[in-house]
């Protein structure tokens, strides 16, 4: 009787369709972060031997292949669920489940590492407050605001994108002022960020590109908003591709001016916060503090957005029967959000931020994301083959390029991340087998 009540409730209470095209783009940009290349600038600079802007542009091309595959699949299946849904429908329901399981790790780890980073950054402003207190604060802060509903999240996304946009404009103005006062730059000064024959190395550039691609991870989160978007078959695919493109253009401009300002060959005082030191060089201690604070704000936005994205993915898997529907597949009656999932992820962030390191969390996030990207590219290829065989060679070629790119990046993940990620995937397989024993799962005959 209880199961019947829950099922009926789930059918009558649905997510509200009120997100416009611009809301989807804002959500994607905030989830990726408009300042995305700033934290990784020093690492890419070091690996690519100064060719950061080239690495960013190459990474944009690689991710555009995958974003096109996401857009095609979102048009075919205008329902929330992202890679979990697409792989399950086009390849096999069990493959979709494992993809969704790995994507859950990706989505949950994003707010978790944002909680860690925000807590560490906040300690720079208030060193007298212990780390644990900041972890509790940020985990509760993300959860409380996401429990306010999709309208609250959309308004916060818009405000956050505007504030970060203002910071980026300030940085670009400061860079322009610094460059105008530069005395007699040589002929190749403005082109060396793209190509410097003295330091160019193809292996180093490819390694830098593999790191730069991580700045784009998050665009796929737009597909989880399909159930809440107006005209999703048209708006969601466009938003996915355009978000990826806009992110690449903006990131290229940010790193280009930074490369012009920072003397080539000069080591950074701290590679992880290299862009902050570049900002200090172009704008003094005030801009140093502004950029440092803006990166904290960007991680707050990313943590909130990815927590809600993970909650929607769990909701989709609960609705499809891959996870227990009673808990994961329901929405709150008043604000129509998957509140159980939001609270669960908030608890995971609180505990995980106390036991995980930021580096391990970041590497594990990449494991889940790249596997999901490979699955979506393969699903797009299979869909094109079914629709027209070789007549659909263009989408199949684009999907193949995306698949090979993601496979290349996945192979270059750290050993510990691949081991831990595989353990998580195997745990998902065990859970799947247990549920098959006692439950009729999606795609299986009764």
What does this structure look like?
This protein is mainly alpha-helical. It is built from 16 helices and no strands. The protein has helices at residues 2-12, 21-32, 37-47, 52-76, 82-90, 93-125, 131-146, 150-180, 202-212, 232-261, 274-319, 325-328, 339-355, 358-388, 393-411, 415-438. α8 (150-180) runs antiparallel to α11 and α11 (274-319) packs across α13. The longest helix is centred in the middle third of the chain and has 46 residues, at 274-319. The radius of gyration is 22 Å and the shape is globular.
What is this entry, summarized?
This protein is an all-alpha fold and 446 residues long. Helix content is 74%, strand content 0%.
Summary keywords:
disordered N terminus, 0% strand, single chain, 446 residues, globular, mainly alpha
What is the SS-derived class? mainly alpha
Rounded to the nearest angstrom, the distance between the terminal CA atoms is: 20 Å
Give the helices and strands as they follow along the chain.
HHHHHHHHHHHHHHHH
The level of helicity is over 70%
Radius of gyration: 22 Å
Q: What share of residues are in beta strands?
A: under 5%
Main sheet attributes: strand count, strand direction, barrel closure: none
User: Are there runs of 5+ residues with pLDDT below 50, and where?
Assistant: 1-12
- Please, how many helices? 16
Count of individual beta strands = 0
Mean pLDDT: 79
General form: globular
């Amino acid at each position: 009787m209880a199961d019947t009540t829950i099922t009926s409730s789930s059918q009558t209470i649905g997510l509200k369709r009120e997100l416009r095209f611009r809301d989807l783009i804002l959500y994607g940009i905030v989830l990726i972060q408009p300042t995305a290349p700033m934290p990784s600038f020093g690492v890419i600079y070091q690996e690519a031997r100064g060719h950061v802007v080239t690495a960013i542009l190459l990474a944009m091309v690689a991710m555009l292949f995958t974003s096109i595959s996401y857009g095609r699949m979102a048009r075919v299946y205008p329902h929330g669920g992202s890679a979990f849904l697409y792989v399950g429908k086009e390849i096999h329901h069990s493959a979709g489940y494992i993809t969704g399981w790995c994507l859950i790790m990706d989505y949950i780890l994003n707010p978790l590492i944002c909680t860690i980073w925000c807590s560490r950054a906040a300690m720079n402003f208030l060193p007298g407050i212990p780390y644990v207190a900041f972890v509790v604060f940020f985990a509760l802060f993300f959860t409380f605001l996401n429990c306010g509903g999709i309208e609250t999240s959309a308004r916060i996304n818009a405000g956050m994108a505007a504030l970060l946009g203002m910071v980026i404009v300030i940085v670009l103005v400061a860079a322009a002022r610094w460059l105008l006062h530069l005395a007699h730059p040589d002929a190749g000064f403005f082109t060396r960020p793209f190509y410097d024959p003295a330091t160019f190395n193809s292996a180093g550039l490819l390694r830098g590109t593999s790191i730069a691609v991580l700045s784009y991870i998050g665009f796929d989160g737009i597909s989880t908003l399909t159930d809440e978007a107006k005209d999703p078959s048209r708006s969601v695919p466009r938003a996915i591709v355009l978000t990826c493109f806009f992110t690449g253009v903006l990131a290229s401009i940010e790193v280009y001016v930074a490369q012009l300002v920072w003397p080539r060959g000069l080591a950074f005082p701290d590679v992880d916060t290299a862009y902050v030191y570049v900002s200090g060089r172009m704008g003094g201690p005030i801009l140093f503090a502004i950029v440092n604070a803006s990166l904290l704000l960007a991680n707050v936005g990313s943590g909130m957005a990815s927590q809600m994205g993970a909650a929607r993915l769990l909701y989709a898997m609960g609705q499809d029967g891959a996870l227990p529907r009673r808990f994961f597949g329901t929405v709150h009656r008043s604000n129509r959000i998957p509140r159980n999932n939001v609270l669960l992820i908030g608890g995971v962030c609180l505990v995980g931020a106390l036991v995980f390191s930021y580096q391990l969390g970041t590497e594990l996030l990449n494991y889940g994301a790249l596997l999901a990207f490979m699955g979506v590219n393969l699903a797009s290829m299979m869909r094109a083959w079914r629709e027209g065989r070789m007549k659909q060679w263009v989408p199949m070629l684009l999907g193949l390029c995306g698949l090979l790119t993601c496979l290349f990046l996945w192979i270059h993940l750290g050993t510990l991340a691949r081991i831990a990620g595989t353990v998580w995937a195997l745990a998902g397989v065990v859970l799947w087998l247990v549920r098959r024993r006692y439950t009729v799962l999606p795609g299986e005959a009764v």
